[in-house]
Specification:
single chain; alpha/beta; Transcription Regulator spoIIAA; 10 helices; elongated
Length: 274
Amino acid sequence: MSENISHNVQSIGQSILQNIDQIAANARHQIEISIKEQGLPSIVPYTFTEQIIVPLSESIEAGEVSYPTEQIPSFKEMDAIPAYLDTVLMSISVVKQSLLSYIEANQHTFSLTVLDVIVITKIVDPLIDYFIHHFTESYLTQKTNSLRSEYYQDDALSVPIIKLSSRVAICPIIGEIDEKRANLILERTLMESSAKKIRTLILDLSGVATLDTMMTQHLFKIVDSLEIMGVDIIVTGVSSEVAIGVVSLGLDLQSLTIKQNLEGALKSLGMVEG
């Protein structure tokens, strides 16, 4: 246990472990309610809540953040490739709220001070971010790999539109954006956004090594056309090298909504907690 952590914090951590069945059952119940209310696919395995709560409570008991050493499930293991990512993100948020509700309900029993609660929050938040990152990366990796083998065989598959929720999708762009490719991206994103009722599209440029003047113009054309159709665009994955290159060309990306990575985009959309 960290020397600066109070005995009260350690005790609440032990209590969470002792009452994990109760907390997990409450979380599962709340997840089921949210799934029905939001019309989400029911894809969360029974043990999911415990796999989140155990490392959280062990870290609270230890008084410091301790990341899981055992392999946590990926989307492949959960057989959830067709499902929406927001089911899992919602479930993680519910587990966190169930844990904090238990702590709040027992705050006086364990004589937790305001400082104790702040310490607990500083332990819980990094772990929640870790789980969000893990499942988001797992989902996208699995979806991308499922398309990669056919990537060059079909124009549609070379511009994958991966749905993250009922209204949010991501389009990973890999390689150069010449005029032919730009027209293909524009055609695919317009068609898929309309067909799938997408309201926000994340254009991920992490697979783009450089952006020259022509490529940037194509990018603006894609963004402008989609926004006319009522689709909000968020650009992610702009590396420092690409940003420096764009500035050196005298180009301005300030009119675009840019986030550093997918997690930042999801936070801005309220799909994960900030």
